[in-house]
From TrEMBL:
One of its GO terms (biological process) is secondary metabolic process. GO terms for cellular component: cytoplasm. It holds the Pfam family Amidohydro_2. Keywords: Hydrolase, Plasmid. The keyword Isomerase does not apply. PANTHER family: 2-AMINO-3-CARBOXYLMUCONATE-6-SEMIALDEHYDE DECARBOXYLASE, ISO-OROTATE DECARBOXYLASE (EUROFUNG). SUPFAM superfamilies: Metallo-dependent hydrolases. It comes from the Bacteria. This is Amidohydrolase. GO terms for molecular function: carboxy-lyase activity; hydrolase activity. InterPro entries: ACMSD (IPR032465), Amidohydro-rel (IPR006680), Metal_Hydrolase (IPR032466).
Length: 354
């Protein structure tokens, strides 16, 4: 089935070097980065030379994958006939130990993506990257940019300093709902803490798979600590979380909630219903089995056609050739993923086409 005119909910413009961000910093931070010679704030989960960081025929020599505007336009927008594509820049602002440095990088990234990408193609939209280390600074950045309706989401890494349901983060959720902005939780860690509860792994295989643990624990934290009760309009988008873990998670969360619900009386409905109403997932990578019939059965177990969002994850590469969607996804679900679900998830996209 054609995915023409689809809404791509996850592409990744790459910051070529810190020099690209310096024009968007104040004198203090511009001089600080030059004096310290600091660069390469790429997240460790997508090292530029790793195979999954970029499809081989999409590479631009030694350049940071996704940093060439013309190639992104050719491959991700024209290549997949996108109607819109949401830019999620993965860079060091959200990961910096220094709160003020993190805020400076995030602010520069947001202004850079606005000037160097959004202004050059009307099909592009973007997420606001925020310094998650300090929710007050994060809210300041959201307020600074919320008036630009081309920013359609707030982007945060899933593995943070603490559980996401804690009230520490609630000012960010309050700002998000105030401005009709979903929270996008992207796979990735601050890499200051072990990605598993049993310590540091030895191999990339362990690190990669353990991202699921972070998504599951953060999702259960949001539910258990009453975030969706406090913010009934909040939407959470799990980006690059995979998909097939969700049915098992939902089954276990509901089973345990039934047994211990007096502990959390404010959670007054099944976690399954909460997740179906508040949570969406980008479907690339879709960590499904090769057998289309089995994949279809797993997707049916989610119990909702409203939750999956189409994404190419450009320039990251975890699919074969141009087959962004695997066999086993029904035509009806593809239509929902590529058009209806993104428009329902991102109110600011709906404004654009009305």
């Amino acid at each position: 089935m054609s995915i023409s005119d689809a809404i791509d909910c996850d592409i990744h413009p790459g910051v070529p070097t810190i020099k690209a961000l310096l024009p968007y910093m104040n004198d203090y931070w511009r001089e600080a980065f030059i004096a310290r010679g600091q660069d390469n704030f790429q997240p460790a989960s997508y090292l530029p030379n790793s195979p999954i960081a970029c499809r081989s025929d999409w590479r631009d020599g030694d350049a940071i994958p996704g940093s060439n505007f013309d190639l992104l336009q050719k491959h991700a927008l024209d290549g997949f006939s996108a109607r819109f594509a949401i830019c999620n820049v993965l860079y060091g602002g959200s990961f910096s130990i220094s709160e003020t440095m993190g805020a400076a990088i995030c602010s520069a990234v947001n202004d850079w993506v606005r000037a160097a990408w959004l202004a050059r193609d009307p099909r592009l939209r973007a997420s606001i990257v925020v310094p998650t280390q300090n929710p007050r600074l994060a809210v300041e950045e959201i307020e600074r940019l919320a008036g630009d309706r081309r920013f359609v989401q707030i982007l945060m890494p899933v593995a943070l300093d603490m559980m996401l349901g804690k009230q520490h983060y609630w000012p960010i959720f309050e700002a998000a709902t105030r401005h009709d902005l979903p929270i996008g939780l992207h796979a990735g860690s601050l890499y200051r803490y072990a990605p598993t509860t049993n310590g540091w792994p030895s191999h990339y295989l362990q690190d990669y798979v353990s991202n699921n643990h972070a998504f599951e624990s953060q999702l259960l934290s949001l539910i258990s600590q009453g975030v969706f009760v406090k913010f009934p309009e909040l939407k959470i988008v799990l980006i690059e979380s995979g998909v097939t873990w969700l049915p098992g998670f939902l089954w276990r969360a509901r089973k345990t909630w039934r047994a211990v619900r007096p502990e959390v009386p404010w959670v007054d409905e099944s976690p399954i219903e909460i997740v179906r109403r508040h949570v969406r997932l980008t479907a690339q990578p879709i960590d499904g089995p090769g057998d289309p019939a089995i994949l279809e059965r797993v997707l049916n177990q989610i119990g909702s056609d409203d939750m999956l969002l189409f994404a190419t994850d450009y320039p990251h590469w975890q699919f074969d050739a141009d087959r962004v969607l695997p066999e086993g996804v029904s035509a009806r679900l593809i239509e929902k993923m590529t058009h209806d679900n993104p428009l329902a998830t991102y109110p600011r996209l709906r404004e654009t086409i009305q």
